[in-house]
Amino acid sequence: MVEAIIYRYRCGIAWRDLPETFGPWQTVWTWHHRMAKTGTWDQVHAKLTAAADAAGLVDWSLSVDSTIARAHQHATNTTRLTGGWIELHESRNRAA
Q1: What is the spatial distance between Cα 18 and Cα 28, in angstroms, rounded to a whole number?
Q2: Rounded to whole angstroms, how far apart are CA atoms 6 and 23?
Q3: Are the C-beta atoms of 16 and 28 separated by less than 8 Å?
Q4: Residue 32 neighbours by CB distance under 10 Å
Q5: In 3D, which of 22, 24, 25 has the Cα closest to residue 4?
Q6: Which of 5, 70, 73, 81 has its CA 20 to 30 A from that of 89?
C-alpha cells in the first residue's frame, strides 16, 4: 500500500489511474486516508526529515519564484468598472 501511495504522488496521477498491480485504487485511497487522518504521514515525514537533517542531507535554504505564484484576475478584492450596464443605460438616454 505504501509503495502504491508513493507511486501515485511521485507520478502525479489521479487515484483512479493507479496501475492494477497495486490492487484496487479504492483500497489504496482508503489506506492513505486512514493514515492521513491518524497523523501517521506527519510522523513519518517528521522522522525522515529529522534523520536526514541529522545526517546533513537537508539544505534549508528556500527560494520562491513569484512568476509561478500568479493569481487569477478574479481572485483580487478590487472592483473594476468595465462599462457594462452603466454604458448601456447611458446609450439608451442618448438615443431618445
Answers
A1: 9
A2: 14
A3: no
A4: 19
A5: 22
A6: 73
Which three cell numbers mark 35? 493514515
User: For residue 41, what are the contacts with CB-CB under 8 A and spacing of at least 6?
Assistant: 35
pLDDT in tens, 24-47: 999 999 999 999 999 999 999 999
Nine-digit cell string for 61: 535554504
Q: For the chain, what are the domain ranges? A: 1-58
pTM of the model: 0.55
Instruction: State how far the Cα of 49 lies from the Cα of 42, in Å rounded to an integer.
Output: 10
DSSP string computed for 2-52: HHHHHHHHHHT--GGGS-GGG--HHHHHHHHHHHHHHTHHHHHHHHHHHHH
How much is the average pLDDT of 4-29?
A: 94
